[in-house]
Each structure stands twice: as structure tokens, then as C-alpha cells.
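Database export, one record per block. Field names are fixed; values are copied verbatim from the stored entry.
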Amino acid sequence: MNYESDKDYQTLVELFDVANMAFLRADKDLFYDGVSERTLCGALKRHIENKKWRRIAPQYKVDVEYDRNDGELKTVIVGENRMIRSITCDLILHSRGKIVKQDNLIALEMKKAYRDEQSKEDDRNRLMALTKSSYDDIWSFDGRTLPKHVCRYILGVYYEVDIRREKIIVEFYRKGNLAERKEIGIKENS
């Protein structure tokens, strides 16, 4: 996998979409039961770890609320003021620091629709920061060292569950920008 590759980005989007559809078919009852975002992410994790994922990226792991970067708390720089924030994504696909050339593949932030707009915007801003090629526009990727602050995720996914309207809002982030937004019906995809 390579951060610069549009093909690798598209492969991750397609594989995420397949996993998400399997998740919606197999676990839609969780949405109606009103379980936590953490529980939903745990169920989605199982579908991401399917055979296709293992064939495409066998050395990568899917973790829920993983918070370490080379033994230290994960941090990211967000906003124009370049605030350093500790970060624990809801779900990530990464090499746990083992593949320096491309450690991070997917970062996902999940929110329920009733949550406040500021927390939703904070998640989106984190995804933009996580998918940037550099944490400070100075660090130069050399393929040998991990950056101090987490970045270079190939794909960022904002996932909003709106059970009242029975839909999922999915936004894909690439290279620090929103790349695509779509709405998916929960019932019609089960």
C-alpha cells in the first residue's frame, strides 16, 4: 500500500464499502438496539477483517480505540492554530508501527446523529489532519522513521448513524480533504 497511490486509495474505499454492506446486513439489529459507538465499531471490525482484507493487507491489524504511536500516546496537529491533541480513533487499520513505509491505512470516526455539531466537526477535522501527508508541512517522509504526530492515513472515514431517518452518512477523506460523501439506507441494504 502506498499513500500517493490513487489505486490503493480506491482499493481501500471499495473494500470498506464491501465490509460496510456486510455489517449493515448482518448487524443492523445493533443500530435499533441503541448500542454504543464502541459496540458498533467492534462489529464493523469483524467485517473489515474478512478474507479480502487479509489477502490485500495481511500484515495490517484492525483496532478499536487504539491510542499508541511507537509506545507513546498518539497525537495529531489540528486546525489553523496547530493545536496538538491526543487522539484515539474509533477504528483504525494500521501496521501498529511495524511498516514504516506505510503504517496507516484507514482511520474511522463514528458518531450518532444526535451528537452535537461541534463533536462531529472535531471528528471531521481530525480525519483531515490524519490523512495529510505531513503533520506540520515540514516533516518529510523518508520511509524510515514514523512522524511524531500521526498522519499519512490513505483513507479517512467519517461514519454517522442516523437511526431516526434510518440512514448512514459516510464521508471519505483523502490527503487532508473531503473526497466523497454518500448516504446509505439501513433497511434497503440489509
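Remark 1: The two ends are 31 Å apart (CA to CA).
Remark 2: The helical segments are 6-33, 37-48, 51-56, 117-130.
End of record.
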